[in-house]
Amino acid sequence: HFKEDKMKKLIALGLAACMTFSLAGCSGSTSKETEAASAAETTAAASTEAETSAAASDTATSIDKLTVTYVTSPLNVPTIIEKDQGIFEKELGVPVEYAELTSGADQTQALASGDVQVLYAVGATSVILSAANGADIKVLNMYSRSPKAFCMYSKDETLTTPESLKGKTIAGPTGTNLHELLVSYLAQADMTLDDVNYVNIPDAKAGLDGGSVDVALIAGATAYNAKQQGYHLVADGEGLISALIAVATTQKFYDEHPDVIEKLNAAQDEIASYMADSQDETMETVAAALDLDVDAVKEMYGYYDFSTEITDADKEG
Q: Which of 4, 136, 187, 277 is the 20 to 30 Å CA partner of 230?
């Protein structure tokens, strides 16, 4: 349709020029001035169209929309701020959809299937398991480190050593930093998961509250609430695990959409700047999202390092 309309316009311009030329007696300055004006208008229109196309290509990304994971636990402050401020969508210039997948296995599966393009906060343990199973997964940058935020809580205050856990029922999500915490804790006494009754339950605190488990592997706000209830802290991750959370995509997406990756990096810098420059607003937004008191958020926030840089220690962890 565009070509057809353009051709009609050119024909119309040609006929108009011919009529002007004829009326002027096929000679004189009038026909030449008309032709010059028509040529100038055509050139100006073409130039404007080219400038518009160039501007569009500068701002557009190579995708029509982006789907990222949305996980707020244990205390994923950048995630909460990003969505609240619409930073990804503003930076990319395309719609952003959020997939609320809390399980690491579900996250990496969604990435492999193409349903999600970016895992915005995925446990390093999940990344390692995905890569070990041959999946295409690439760490873009770090999201957080928070060993003290990952905990083992119990109602039994006599559980103070790895040996005291022998035969106990311990619940938590498989393939996560919490799973790694339990394995590392037991390893201090040359014990393995075979020495305990390990149960794969995502909501381990419910089991602890109900009395069906002896120890719950919990983190973030859930761990904070357990502490407030007076539950016994068996151990946290400090000195046991790196508790790394990463941002990941596939190598394929990374290679095919360098413009998107560049804009995502810029967006993460903007999120970090907002968190640093608007600390009170950040605490209030996170507290509202997690249904916590602002003071609770401030206390837990101190456990986290949200630097996105990948260090040698991160690689080792």
A: 187
